[in-house]
Amino acid sequence: MVSFLKNRAYSTLPVLRRVAKCCPIGVDIGDDTIKMVQLSNNNSGKDVSLIAADSKNQPEELKTGSGNWQRWTIEAMHQMTANGKFRGREVIAAMPAAEVFIDHVRMRRMRDGEATEEKLQDAIFSRIKQKLPFEPDDAMIKYIPAEDNNVVVIAAERKIIDRHLAIYENANLKIKSIGIWPVALVNSYTAFFARRKADIEAVVMLLEIDACHTNAVACRYRNLLFARSIPIGANQLENGEMMARLVLELNACRRHFGSMYKNVPIERLIFLTSQSKSTNMCGTIAKQLEMPAQTGDCLAAVKVAKPDRLGVDRRDSQVNWATAFGLSLS
Fold first, then answer.
1. Domains of the chain by start residue, with CATH
2. Which residue in 265, 310, 230 sits closest to 52, CA to CA?
3. Which of 12, 23, 101, 325 is the most buried (most CB within 10 A)?
């Protein structure tokens, strides 16, 4: 049974006015859509308001990464920021999941004084360089310590990162940082849907089903434990065979997670999606995985600073905003 998560953050209004912090613009370049979101956050970090949001669908004839795609992306960002709804030009951006390599490494426990940053990076690089889908010398690598000596490793090709940096420069946007989609999903989960004391210790699997990919993340509150992008998305899931393949892939994720973290069960699924999307798909996946599940709509979980200036219809949004929201909150 799939139920919608309640937004627990705004059950009462603050008695005193808090000074709100304007967050950077979160930019999520997805399979077929560019999404831009800007949030504001008060000093306590518990009240989040939506300043602006906009999205544009990528023309079907464009091939992601091509010169025409780059020109279209720059123009789309110009159009979205030209209406004055967004404040400032500072952005935190994420590259498409298909352009990011993710692996999981279990490191031996190092003795005191042995685990220098340089030695740890060298050890991680030696473990993954043969797995990289591009030349190791062209890789830019980030690692995130998890639990039980596990490390989540994220890598991208340098020339692709440079391509994205050039896009933002030509769109007259200032890059604060390049974020990564697994951390962005964790940010959205903890900001909007992990408000109970039990949520601090619970291990959950977050699922964001995009057009051509399903992004899966396992986390314990803010701690990222596992991440994988599966090249099966909503556009294919009307086909029963593809739905079965996605379930097989998600079960493989659970087994991989279980091999990394002994006796640490994943307690439930959280589908980070919009309420206007059909819950049948989420319900089918949860039933076949035999796991309790909930759905969480980030767009419905925030207050709106100025409803008349909002760039999307909250009542009938077909867009997954979780990554963009999490980037803005980074």
1. 2-100+157-328 (3.30.420.40), 101-155 (no CATH)
2. 310
3. 325
